[in-house]
Amino acid sequence: MLNISDLPLKLLPSGASDRLLQPLWDYLLLHHLPLISSPFFPVLLAFSSYFFFSIPFAVLDLLGEKVPLLYQYKIQPDMQPTVQMMAKSFFIALYNHIFFVLPAVIIGMFILPAPTLPQEAPTLYEVFVDGLAALLLFDTQYYIWHFIHHKNTQLYRWIHAIHHEYTAPFSWSTEQLSIPELMTVGLWSNQDPLLLKCHPLTTWCMTVFSIWMSVEDHIGYDLPWTLNHLVPFGLLGGAPAHNMHHQRPSSNYAPFFSHWDIIFGTAVPLKKKTLRG
């Protein structure tokens, strides 16, 4: 369990703090301490985010051409995921979490020191800056890892190939990963915020946001309101870049941002397919 710093717990008066998130943080500490102090909470938060973010896009895939307003943005309209494909991806993710992630958390409870929950909430500036720093660090780590695992035949075959089973990704395939890849990604996701001394609330916000970005990368739709369109200057690759990566695996290695692919010449623009008549 996480420790609360400076016990006994004294919630900071909202009026005495200029931190807009202080009332929320006080509420979490006062009413949900057993939940947020559990070492299983980050896993629950990440997996539930993956689950709930994937559902609407899975429904969209199943409806297909019955929703022409949205289906027009399908990147590969002749490649529709089936219920069996969706179920396979989901149960791989569920199996990995039950039999590998949860045991790893239990082991960590005995060998890792318990971090602390501070009484003071982060500022909105800290949430943004620290969260962005953690995302940029993860993006760099995964770019290097991803590049190496595509260039080394054995690493690709034994560790990363399972994620490339489908050339047209869909939301549930976001976490269709091998055990080594899942554990590596999980290690970075947990240790990077600690390295950067992020507030727990910042870490949780970053977790949810990064899962959303990952799911959005895999939805298979270039929707006009997704983050890659809302964030200017092409800073995010989004679904078009990652869909192209599944079609042409020697391109677009970065998970979120586009700068490393541009710098190292691995950025390849999407060539959208049209539905064959």
Please give a quick description of this structure:
With 277 residues, this protein is mainly α.
Structural write-up:
This protein has helices at 22-31, 33-36, 41-63, 68-71, 83-111, 124-151, 153-160, 179-195, 200-218, 227-230, 238-247, 259-263, and strands at 3-4, 116-117. The model has no long low-confidence stretch (mean pLDDT 92). The protein is an all-alpha fold and 277 residues long. A two-stranded parallel ribbon has the order 1-2.
Mean pLDDT: 92
Percent helix, as a range, is: 55-70%
Order of helices and strands: EHHHHHEHHHHHHH
The tally of helices reads: 12
- Output the structural class: mainly alpha
C-alpha Rg (nearest Å): 20 Å
Stretches where pLDDT is under 50 for at least 5 consecutive residues are: none
> What is the tally of beta strands?
2
Strand percent estimate: under 5%
Large-scale geometry? globular
Tell me the distance between the termini.
Answer: 58 Å
Keywords:
globular, 277 residues, 58% helix, two-stranded parallel sheet, mainly alpha, 12 helices
Map the helices and strands:
Elements: E1 3-4, H1 22-31, H2 33-36, H3 41-63, H4 68-71, H5 83-111, E2 116-117, H6 124-151, H7 153-160, H8 179-195, H9 200-218, H10 227-230, H11 238-247, H12 259-263
Parallel strand pairs: 1-2
